[in-house]
Amino acid sequence: MSPPQFAIPGIRLGTAAAGIKYPDREDMVIVELTQGSSCTAVFTRNAFCAAPVQLAKQHLTLGPPRFLLINSGNANAGTGDQGLQDAQASCQGLAQAAGCSAQQVLPFSTGVIGENLPVARMLNAVPAAMNHLTVDGWEAASRAIMTTDTRPKLRSHHFEFEGVKVGLSGIAKGAGMIRPDMATMLAYLATDLGLSQDLLQRCLEDAVGPSFNSITVDGDTSTNDACVLMASGASTLEPVTDPDSELYKLFAHAVKQLCMELARDIVRDGEGATKLVEILVQGAADEEEARGVAYTIAHSPLVKTALFASDPNWGRILAAVGRAGVVDLDIDRIEIWLDETCIVRNGGRAPDYTEQAGASVMNQEEFTIRVSLGRGGAQTRVLTCDLSYDYVKINAEYRT
After folding, report:
1. How far is CA 227 from CA 42, 83, 103, 187, in A?
2. Looking at residue 235, what DSSP letter applies?
3. Which of 124, 145, 351, 400 sits most deeply, having the most CB atoms within 10 A of its CB?
4. Residue 46 has pLDDT above 80, yes or no
5. What Rg, from alpha-carbon coordinates, does the chain have?
């Protein structure tokens, strides 16, 4: 049972063991939204988006959902028409048990790609998950959606407005195949505040940019990613309809902070990761340029393996900046830092830099690589991690 602070009035979660990949492991979640709730989501942009993603998008256009059906162990991706039929059958099965229409169910799947969804096993587990529906089901749900994650990801925020407490809770899964558009993951956030559909969508899109869409573990984008924001409207506060209101600003800030925390949890739990590293690129001509440099560094296997070894091999970082595609880059204006230790200045190694100082920073579990391009006022931040022996082992043995 989750601690009381995670409970969101109007949102109940139930879990069950459907035996999708492993026997006797809870691997299915049902989320119930009270009548009158609003819901929005953002999804992967992978062209091979999974059947549940296609169906969830379609169902969202038809009206607010009453239930989410989430399974781990099987992605139901790369499964063609059969995959769509299976996703639809799972929605119909839950709808029949719950007394709603199939279009009021949003399906989500994560796990192995290319295998058919065991619909019969899932539907057999629906009664158990329905019987376990509770406002305290957040922690159990955070575990049931895990795949290669080593720990659950669960966060909550609260704030007060006019003497009324507003709750916000969220869970996420993700450890590998992490890269923006969406960042490869599933995430589910809920609040008891009431918001219009337009404001809910605006709030979510504003939050995923600097959080889930600014992280990378390995540069791979999956087929099933989704981030869902639910608003039950169970609060005694009037529903929010004005984006300039103080209440909306407080809520939007809380959502962004919650997404940032869950995003950090995902990168910190990157498959085999031992380091959490922020790439901060400053002095860029525009944000696109800054992000291009940041991701070139973050995706470099040579940089990432140096991070794992705690080896201050600054030449690898310098080379990544140089090949990031910045037009007319003046290398004499570039500065590169490890936390507060300057390693590159005026096109070469900083005169006061020592290998000992660099190694001291790299030995930390968390630190920042800061790059100043000297070209303008734009900047961006990206979170990444190192590339270890365990990453190769985990992914080489993923289906065995």
Report:
1. 5, 21, 19, 5
2. S
3. 145
4. no
5. 22
How are the residues of the chain apportioned to helix, strand and coil, as percentages rounded to the nearest 5? 35, 25, 40
Burial environment of residue 313 by CB neighbours within 10 A (0 to 12, 13 to 18, 19 or more): middle
CA 208 to chain centre: 8
Question: Same structural domain for residues 231 and 290?
Answer: no
CATH number at residue 313: 3.10.20.340
Same domain, residue pair 229 and 301:
no
Residue finishing a domain among 236, 268, 300: 268
171 & 202 share domain = yes
More confident residue, 8 or 48: 8
Backbone angles phi, psi at 360, to 5 degrees: -60, -40
Residues 6+ away with beta carbon under 8 Å from 315: none
What are the tokens at 28?
A: 């299915």
* Alpha helices, H only, 145-222: 197-208
Residue 331's domain spans which residues? 276-396
Q: Is the pLDDT of residue 47 over 90?
A: no
Q: What is the pTM of this model?
A: 0.88
Using CB atoms within 10 Å of the CB of residue 128, give its burial: 0 to 12 exposed, 13 to 18 middle, 19+ buried: middle
The Cα 85–Cα 66 span in angstroms is 20
Distance from C-alpha of 131 to C-alpha of 50, rounded to nearest angstrom: 29
Supply the residues annotated as catalytic.
Answer: 184
Question: What 3-state DSSP class applies to 334?
Answer: coil
- When divided into structural domains, the chain yields a total of 2
Q: What is the mean pLDDT of residues 306-318?
A: 91
- Among residues of the chain, what percentage have pLDDT more than 70? 93
Whether 38 and 167 share a structural domain: yes
- Map residue 51 onto helix, strand or coil: helix
